[in-house]
Write a structure and sequence with these properties.
The structure holds 2 protein chains of 2 kinds. Chain A contains 6 helices and no strands. Chain A is mainly alpha-helical. The radius of gyration of chain A is 17 Å and the shape is globular. The termini of chain A are far apart. Chain B contains 6 helices and no strands. In chain B, helix 1 crosses helix 5. Chain B is globular. The chains are: A mainly alpha, B mainly alpha. At the A-B interface, helix 1, helix 2, helix 3, helix 4 and helix 5 of A face helix 1, helix 2, helix 3, helix 4 and helix 5 of B. Chain A: It comes from Methanococcus voltae PS.
């Protein structure tokens, strides 16, 4: 069976709800899968334990943080190694990449999740998340108009 | 049972990472392809995700396993993460959502993928994506150390 984005999306939506119900990745609601929030939880948990700070995070991660990020990287690494896709490379300047990651995290946390969680919240009936998805599309449009087409 | 969320997300994350690498799933990339070349191949990932989550949520709420579905907008939004998030009205949530969404959309185009796609690319050995992931980690600390309080003081 061919692995298409549509099928993987379907599986991801299904597993996000399974994570919430079976593995209690909640509160807050619609938290089963979120790259930005789960990275935040893991990082802040490490920083809090190392430096004794009290940076904010979801209650589910207070004692042991969620490990989605580690899982995704391991899964992608295994897939790339198994299919001979693994290759050390750079797409553009690493300092630019670092800065963009820093900025995207701030914007994502501002709207309360990465695109994945906005879609999950939309499926939950949260109209603000639908507004978020629409404006992500607007941002993508602006990005393609002023960056991709000019470049 | 504190370890259950960690174990669950680790296992599902690994499966998703594997499938994500094979399919190049990317929500922002899907929207980009729709706009740029009218190609719906990646966009089906976003549609499938919302559809899969919706159907599964309906099933589990009928089984009584999902008391928070459907989640109405007037109840406990966490658009601004943090303990004081519930005190703000609807308008501030909309404002931060629009600003954040525009930022995420534009940056995802410049970087070449949404955060999920960049995690997968980090696993593939893309050093820019690895730098991006570290940037996300630092950004989270910066957000909770300084930006969140600033935003709340502006909106309050």
């Amino acid at each position: 069976m061919k692995i298409t984005p549509g099928k993987v999306g379907l599986f991801a939506g299904f597993s996000a709800i399974i994570l919430e119900t079976m593995f209690k990745v909640t509160p807050p609601p619609a938290y089963g899968l979120c790259i930005a929030c789960h990275t935040r939880d893991l990082t802040n948990w490490i920083v809090n334990n190392a430096l004794g700070t009290s940076l904010g995070m979801a209650p589910v991660s207070k004692l042991i943080p969620v490990l989605t990020v580690i899982g995704v990287i391991i899964g992608a690494l295994v897939a790339a190694k198994a299919n001979n896709d693994f290759k050390l490379r750079t797409t553009h300047n690493m300092a630019v990449g670092f800065t963009l990651g820093l900025l995207v995290m701030n914007f994502a946390l501002l709207m309360g999740g990465c695109p994945v969680r906005m879609a999950l919240r939309t499926a939950y009936g949260d109209m603000i998340a639908l507004v978020g998805l629409v404006f992500i599309a607007v941002g993508v449009y602006l990005g393609t108009e002023f960056y991709l087409k000019k470049a | 049972m504190n370890w259950l969320p960690a174990i669950g997300t680790l296992i599902f994350g690994a499966i998703l990472g594997y499938l994500g690498q094979r399919s190049a799933l990317c929500f922002c990339g899907g929207i980009r392809d729709m706009i740029l070349i009218k190609d719906s191949w990646l966009f089906k990932g976003l549609v499938g995700f919302i559809g899969g989550a919706l159907v599964t949520a309906i099933v589990f709420s009928l089984l009584g396993q999902l008391p928070t579905f459907p989640w109405v907008i007037t109840k406990g939004l966490t658009a601004i993460p943090g303990d004081a998030a519930g005190n703000l009205g609807l308008m501030p949530h909309l404002i931060v959502t629009v600003i954040g969404a525009l930022g995420v959309g534009i940056i995802s185009i410049i970087q070449g993928g949404c955060p999920f796609r960049n995690l997968v690319m980090a696993g593939e050995g893309n050093k820019t994506a690895i730098a991006y992931v570290f940037g996300m980690a630092v950004g989270a600390v910066i957000f909770h150390q300084w930006v969140l309080a600033l935003v709340q003081s502006i909106l309050a």
